[in-house]
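[job 0412] stage=fold_complex status=start
inputs:
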Amino acid sequence: MADAPSNPLEQRLPGGFVPQDEVDRTEKRWLFIMLGMLAVMMLIVVVTSIVHALHPPSNVEPINPVTLHLEGEFVESNLGAALETDGVTVRLVAQQFSFVPNCVKVPAGTPIKFRLTSADVVHGFILVDRNVNTMVVPGFVSEVRTSFANPGEYRMPCDEFCGLGHQGMWARVVVVVKDQFPKLTPEQRTNCVSE
Ligand code: CUA
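[job 0412] stage=fold_complex status=done
writing structure:
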């Protein structure tokens, strides 16, 4: 008979069974590896949230996705950027396969609050090159606060796969000079065609 393989799982045993204690040992080893992986992932979540301020969105604010266009905060006339007491609030609706409105102007050097919701499936809201990223889930309002130091333009692609037109779903945020913003009409705040 040839030398028995060192891996006990490959050893041929009478009856074809691996001994129970070897099974227990292997299972225990995998259990510790899994616990180690979990601990590392938890550590990454804790460290990034403390050091880099990366928090999962916690704004659990329900809304009825069926009546968005009929009543409440997200009726079409209320969308876009509005000057409010605590800065500028931007309201957007994500739907297959566009954001409404698809461009929004905001002032530089001002606290900006983005409030988004979805009319159909899960979409994503991200500002390229900014620490702004959240899921837009039907039935909930997603809220992100940020501010922009300087005028500029940010692309805003949907970053959650939402269907066949997903890759064509994107919008823009145009940051204008602070003093210029109050002079814009609500229509101009959502129209980025160069005047
Ligand atoms: Cu909306 Cu992808």
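[job 0412] summary: The CA atoms of residues 96 and 120 lie 7 Å apart.
[job 0412] exit 0
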